[in-house]
Task: structure prediction
Amino acid sequence: MTLKNTLLALALALTVSAVHAADPLVFDDPAMEERYNDLTLELRCLVCQNQNLADSDAELAQDLRREIYDMMMDGQGDDQIKTFMVDRYGDFVLYRPAMSGNTLLLWLMPGILLGVGAIAVFFTVRNRNQRLAAERQQG
Amino acid sequence: MIGRLIPVAIFLALGVLLAVGLKIADHKSEIPSPLIGKPMPEFNLPVLGQPDVMVSHEELIGTPFLLNVWASWCVTCRVEHPVIEELARSGLIRVVGLNYRDEEADAKAWLARFGNPYELNIADITGRTAIDFGVYAAPESFLVDPEGKIVFKQIGAVTPEVIQEEIAPRVREWSKGP
Result:
C-alpha cells in the first residue's frame, strides 16, 4: 500500500517534470518543431533569468513562446525572431549574443585571459631556465 | 622581490573585481531597456472598463506622461501605489496606467480599494503590447517625452527618489521649452 503510493507519487512527479512548460502548440512539420525547440532553448526567460524560454513556466515565457510560434507560422526566419526579441529586451535575451560594441569584451575575454596566461607561463619558464643555467654555471 | 609582489597584486586585483561584482549584483536583475531613446511602440487598446473605447499610442503623444505598468495581482504595485498617487496629485506629469494581464473586475476592484490616480487606464489583457514595451515584470514605468519618445524606464517600484532624480529634472527641462 505504502509502496504503491510511493511509486504512484514518483510516477506522477516524473510525468510533471516531463511535460513541464508544455504548451498546446501544434506543429505539422517536424522540422518546424525542431526549429522552435532550438529557438526557445537559445532565448532567455526574462522573469527567471537562469532559465531559457523552453523550460520556463512564467506567464511571460508562455506569452513569448506563443509569439515565437505565431511568427514562425507567419514564415519568419530565426534571425527575424531573434531581432524581435533583442529589439524589446536587449542582448540579454540571447544566450549567445551577437558580437557588437556592447558584447565585444564578453566575447574576447576568454582569448585575452588565455593570452595573459600564456605570457605569464612564457616568462616564468624563461626566468626559471635562466636561473637554472646560472646555477649550473656557478656550480 | 618583484616575484613576491605578484601574488599580492593578483590578490588585490581579484579583490577589486569581486567588490565591483558585488556592487553590480544589486542591479543584476534589471535589464537595461533597448527602447530608451526610441519612439514608444504602437498600440491600439481598449480603455479599462470600456471595451468599446480604444486608445492608440498616437493619441497620447503631445504632452509628456508616465506610463505605469501595473496589475491587481502585483504585490509591489500595491507598495508603489501611494507614490504614484502622490505623483499624480502633485501635477508634475500626467500618469497613464497600463493594466497588464489582469481581469477587468479585479483591476477595477483594486482601483476602488486603493484609489485611482490614473488619468487613463489602458487594458492590455493579453500582454501583447507589454511585450512590445519589453515589459518583463510589474511594476515598470516608462517616461515618455512630448514627441512620444521613451526617455527613461524604471524597473520595479517608482520611489520618491526616482521622481526627484530621474523624472522631475526631465519634466522641468521640457517645460522650459526647446
Remarks:
- The first strand of chain B starts at residue 44 and ends at 47.
- Chain B has two domains: 1-30, 31-176.
